[in-house]
Records
---
Amino acid sequence: MSKKAKYIDAYAAELPLDRLKELSGEDLHKWINDTYSVAVEAGYAGCAVTTRITRYKGDLYLLVRKFDEAVANTREEGALVFSRCHIEVTNQPELKRILGNIRRYCDLISVSPQDRQLMAFSSRDHRIDVISLPPEKAPPFFSGDIVELKAQEKLIEVTVSSLFSGNMLNPYRIRALRDSLKTIKKKNLKIIVSTGPQQIYSPRDPRALISFAKIFLEIDQAKLSKDMSDGIYKRISENQLKRSGKIPVRGVEIEK
């Protein structure tokens, strides 16, 4: 990437699985293109469009593959757009089952852990790229989590949508997230701030967002700027190499 930061909105407009199932290929392509256009207009170089998974379904891999193929087709037309699957479930067996079905069909996979067991698992499982902090107080990070998060270079995410109740900033959520981030910042882990789920995708200018995070979440601006550009792009690029068979193991590239 160039010296000028090329920001990626890692959690752009969200499409629930049930809605994804209803959309025709043409409508899905239009939705992805429209989302990308809004992100670019806001100042982003690209975005990760997101489908949210809240339970395992028999046709899960078919729906996720449909989503990923539509994103890939849009990218071939010149849009810097990526596929993201965001998982919100309440138990580890279901999370494992979902991961086994979708990993090969996503540029990014994120989880929002609701308890300590899910936090520990999400920190360690190599199929998960992003830990998205829940809007209320997140489960604590233990030392073993931190070691794995750092070794695997995972991204810790705060979504803008999680900071608001309606149109108003929620001071309780601000304080809770600031507390959750203390250890993360101290250990110099990668942090990103993304738009998150909204009824209508309305991203803020990424530079304004970085300033906002400095003021309200006390996140270093220079580091956040790097993580929201190079950090995200590196993770996605590595996943795409894995999916194409060029990196079967982290850090080992196959010569063709």
---
Amino acid sequence: MVVRRSGTISSDGPSHPSQSQTLNATAMTPIFNGLRQSRRRRSAAQMIEHDPYFIADPDAIETPAMVVFEQQLDANIADLCGLVGGGANLMAHVKTHKSEAIARKQLAAGIAGFKCATLQELELALDAGAPEAILAYPMVQRRKVERFADISATYDDRKVYAAVGDPRHVDVLAQIAQNRSQKLAVMVDLDVGMHRTGAGLDEEATALYSAIHAAPSLICGGLHVYDGHEHFRDPSARNAAAQRHVDDLKTLKGRLEEQGMSVPRIVGGGSFSYATYARAEGFHGSPGTVIYWDLNGTGRMSDQPYRWAAMVLCQVVDRHPDQLTVTTDLGYKAIAGDPPLANRARLLGHEQATLLLQNEEHGVFSWPDGASLPQVGDYQLAIPGHVCPTTIRFPGSYVIDSQGAVVDYYPHTARDRQ
């Protein structure tokens, strides 16, 4: 039983709900009950069970589909906050899940607010009830700045920040805010070695912050830093690198305050370094991927307590025993394509199988010599190499409880930019 795109209910197999549909546990209760009843009629052979991951009735979900395991998700949120003594020192990135439902879960756990990469993500965070949110992406197009100003005005009871790394960013924000007789809060984005966005930590940052301070229509919001170039596997090296940035930021903050400028907050790091920032007095850490975790995280940071919470349910559609290959419906429309092919996905319980060939709708896996190949029709769970851009492949995620039942559907509210 399933909700069709039109909103009607059918018993002949599910299709993905459209992005425009608002699905919640109450509205979906009859459907979930149908899924549970359907599960009881299925044979054990059709179940997926790789402890602690269990899907009782994969036939009820049209593949390929993104699935989120509720128990693992909740544990990741708990660890996310627990590692830094609570969530009040966290500004979590919403880019990984892009889901208002999960943002609400994070807020309920005590997270202070969110960092966002798009205006759609910013709206999601504020709609979820976040008391503060940062658009940590530079805006220079007037259309985007106008929209940012609209969002800030709509949520004038919240703290909403733009980020700048170039004088032109400041100019556009100041001009539009002045034309609207509005004040906009602005943070300076800093480049600490990634050379992607941001101002240098020296005179460049001071000059940029001074420009914000001097603009009557702008408010100094603080500092933002992302050290995404430092993926150290050794925890001590990872923490030491982040601590150097913390120390540099403290120095910059002191210099700005000596000149009479307020630096109300500093937000730094990513999933690999957020804890170091969050533990520093007056800082907020900014994790993202840890909410779902993925192969990249496991490979680079095996010391972390997180577990895979989101996967792609796929199915074997053909097999070639003479070639030791199986073909699934895990095409590159179904999983992020930025890791190299061999690291793009692993099949849970068959981690030695490697992705050999991928097209739009096909994912061919090479099986180890001597291992038993799956049969046509067998279901597989694919662990993404990079889970964040995998999310945008799907309009939403099916939520699976510890009993293997589909209990909810989380629309990817900010899947699109507009």
---
Amino acid sequence: MLRTRAFSTSARVLSYIGKQPILVPESVKLQISPTEVVVEGPLGRVQMSKPTFVNIASSQDTMSSGSVLSVSVNDATNKTQRAMWGTMRGLINNHVTGVTDGHVALLTLVGTGYRAGVEKDAHTGAPIVSVRCGFSHPINFVIPAGIEVTTPIPTRILIKGADKQQVKLFGASIRLKRPPEPYKGKGIYLDDETITRKATKVK
């Protein structure tokens, strides 16, 4: 009987991603140290930690006035380094996009009386998102630094920021207060989220 051996392709895929160059516009500046990367552009500044085995090199982009980044690791045969290779490349690329174009999360409120608005905290003056989603009182969320929040209409919350993870986590924290429920479809939906509706229980 011929034996076959299964290989995990995840690390291989990540190393392939890691090899892809990153195009950096002229408006974006990078500071690279052995343990940290700082990406700064028109829409903000993002910092991230960097393993010492990850190397980042910059060269002039011959097609524009920007630059090209290449990411590598000390030992591409090491499974941990190979996996981190693609992860680091993806994070840096996200940050470059974030400080130039920004990242967005959209929350949709579905339910009778559900609505939201951007206000200032009565005690601290800090900007907050005040959300009414079926509780006896509004739920307030302090807007983190680096995040911009608007409510184009009362049932939509638009979150923008340079740090993709920060934007999505803030959106997820609001959604968590009233996740969509499958019977009436009420709740707070994040981005293109959909749910499978269930038939109403018959008593």
